[in-house]
Every structure is written in structure tokens, then in C-alpha cells.
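Researcher: Re-running this chain for the archive, since the previous output was lost when a drive failed. Same request as before.
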Amino acid sequence: MRPRNVAHLPRSLAGPGSSAWIGMLLFVAIEATAYGSLITSYFYLQLGAERWPPDGIAQPALLLPTLSTALLVASAVPVRWAELGIRRGDERRLRIGLALGLLLASGYPVIAGIEASQRSYSLAANAYASIVWVASSYSLLHVVGLLGLGGYVIALAFRRDLHAEKHTALGVVALYWYFAALASIPLWATLYLAPRALGA
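Model: Regenerated C-alpha cells:
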């Protein structure tokens, strides 16, 4: 049997069929499970508490966490705009969109740090304190990682390594960006809205 000529086939896949995409999808699935576990743990701990938050801990303030979450969610919009732009070969739109996305997302860790510094309780104070610190720190860690990935992609953009035929790296990072932005909403609702409903 004569061997087939496969020289015309691509050496690697790009886009949604690539190993990078599949790897990121699997990572997102794992992280979604972790977020779900944290939220489930929060409500499980609340079931065994007489008061939530416990005595001595005020209701969490809404302003700062709402602002940080809004900035993170908003940051996904220019990233999507950049992603659509590079598919059409618009490198200027790519760089502007990524820069705006990074600028907006960078507000999250700054504001989250300010909000954390204003908490009157430590990680070990009680079950409520522990789950709030762990869940909010977990989300913060994701955003810090996101900023690192975003910095890498924007460096590629300014080096002109991303163009209409080659932008898988951006697509993979954008996928994680959208996940991080969307995942912050139910976590925000759990940590900052739920105590008001549960304590009512």
C-alpha cells in the first residue's frame, strides 16, 4: 500500500478545533466547578447559622464590590470588539480594544484590595469570614491571572504577531476573559446580595 501524501495538511489546527482551545475549555469547566463549589459552600454554611452574617459583622457594603464587578464585566466588551476586529485584519482595533479591556479589568484588583482592607474580620474569625475571604481571594486570583494573559496577548498585538490568519492566542485568552467576567456575577450576588436577603 502506497503512503499518502499529507504535505498539504496543516501542521497544527487554529481556532476552536485547536488543542489550545480544547485545553482552555477544559480549564474553564474545572474553574466553573470550583466557583460552583464555593457558592454551594457559602449557602451550606449559612444553613447552620442563626444569623448571617454572624453577630459582630455588619452587612457587606455594596458600592466597591459592585463597581469592581461592573468594571470586570465591562472589560469583556472591548476585548470582544478587538477579537472581531482582528478577524477582519484590523490590527489598530485589536490594540485599542485590548488596551481598553486591560485598563478596565485592572480596576478589579485595585478596588477589591481596598474593599478587603475595610473588612473588620479576619479569615479565621468564623465560617462566614472564612468563606468570604476564600471566595473573594479566589476570584481575585483569577483576575490577576487574566491580567497576565491579557498582557501577553497585547504584547503579541504590538509585535504584530496577531493578524487575520493567526489569532488563536487571542481567541483562547478571550474565552477565559469572558468566563472570568461572567463568573464574577453569581459570586458577587452570593457574597454581597444574598446576606441581605438571608438576613431579612
